[in-house]
Specification:
By secondary structure, this protein is α/β, with parallel strands linked by helices. The protein has a single domain, classed as Rossmann fold, CATH 3.40.50.150. It has helices at 15-37, 41-52, 69-75, 88-97, 133-142, 163-182, 185-196, 201-210; strands spanning 59-63, 80-85, 102-105, 118-124, 144-155, 214-221, 226-232. The longest helix has 23 residues, at 15-37. It is globular.
C-alpha cells in the first residue's frame, strides 16, 4: 500500500490521497475484509505463508502489511517478522494485535533494508497499490537473500462466466455499496479500479521473472478471484 510520492500509476490516486484513504479506513479494514471475502482471506494468507516456506528463525519481511494479518500468520510459524506499511493508522491496529512483531512505517518502493536482509518477503493485497509496480517488485527481490522466497498474494479478475459476471457485480456494485455503509465510498470504489488495472496472473509472473526471480509459479484459487505467485531469488 505504498506508492512513491509524485509517481502515480495510471488509474491510481496520488500517494498522499492513497495514504490518507488507508488511514481513514483502518478502523473498518478488518471487518470489511471479512465481509467482502466471506472470511476466506485468512485461508489465502495461510497459503501465502506456506509458499514463503518460512519457519523457526527465518527473517521475513511483509510489505504493505496493513493491519498485520499476514505478518501474524508468519510469526505463528516461528519466523522473525517485520511488517512495513506507509499508513500509520493501519500500523497502530497491527501493533495492537501483535506487540511482539516489529511494525515499521516505510515506502515499499524504497525499502529501508540492506540487500539480502530477509529469508523471505511477502506482500498480501498490496502490490496493486504500488505506483511503480516493477520498481516495487525489484525492491522485494533486492532485500531477499539468494535462495530466498518472494510471495505475492493478490486479487485477480476472473475471465470466464459465470464467475466473471458475479465478480463484476460484486466489485463494481456491491463493494462500493458496502463502502458507503462503512462511511467511505471513495475507498471502496478505488478497490475495483486497482484490481482492474493490475496485471493478469501470467503478466505478473513475467514481471517477477524479469526482476530476477527464478522458478516463478502461481496458483489461482477461489474460482479465479485470487492469485498467489511465488519465486526464488
Amino acid at each position: 500500500m505504498t506508492p512513491l510520492a509524485g509517481e502515480a500509476a495510471r488509474g491510481t490516486l496520488p500517494e498522499g490521497q492513497v495514504q490518507a484513504m488507508f488511514d481513514r479506513i483502518a478502523g473498518v479494514y478488518d471487518l470489511m475484509n471479512r465481509v467482502m471475502t466471506a472470511g476466506l482471506d485468512a485461508r489465502w494468507r495461510a497459503r501465502a505463508a506456506d509458499l514463503a516456506r518460512a519457519g523457526a528463525g527465518d527473517r521475513v519481511l511483509d510489505v504493505a502489511t496493513g493491519t498485520g494479518d499476514l505478518a501474524i500468520e508468519l510469526r505463528d510459524r516461528g519466523a522473525e517478522v517485520t511488517g512495513l506499511d506507509f499508513s500509520e493508522e493501519m500500523l497502530e491496529r497491527a501493533r495492537e494485535k501483535a506487540p511482539d512483531v516489529r511494525f515499521e512505517q516505510g515506502n515499499a518502493l524504497e525499502l529501508p533494508y540492506a540487500d539480502g536482509a530477509f529469508d523471505a518477503v511477502t506482500v498480501g493485497f498490496g502490490a496493486r497499490n504500488f505506483a511503480d509496480l516493477d520498481r516495487g517488485l525489484r525492491e522485494l527481490v533486492r532485500v531477499t537473500r539468494p535462495g530466498g522466497r518472494v510471495v505475492v498474494l493478490e486479487i485477480t479478475t476472473p475471465q470466464r462466466p459465470p464467475l466473471s459476471l458475479f465478480f463484476r457485480l460484486w466489485f463494481d456494485r456491491l463493494v462500493p455499496a458496502l463502502g458507503r455503509l462503512a462511511g467511505d465510498p471513495d475507498a471502496y470504489s478505488y478497490l475495483p479500479s486497482s484490481v482492474r488495472r493490475f496485471p493478469d496472473p501470467y503478466g505478473l509472473g513475467e514481471r517477477l521473472a524479469r526482476v530476477g526471480l527464478t522458478d516463478v509459479r502461481w496458483l489461482i484459487t477461489a474460482g479465479g478471484i485470487i492469485a498467489l505467485h511465488a519465486g526464488t531469488r
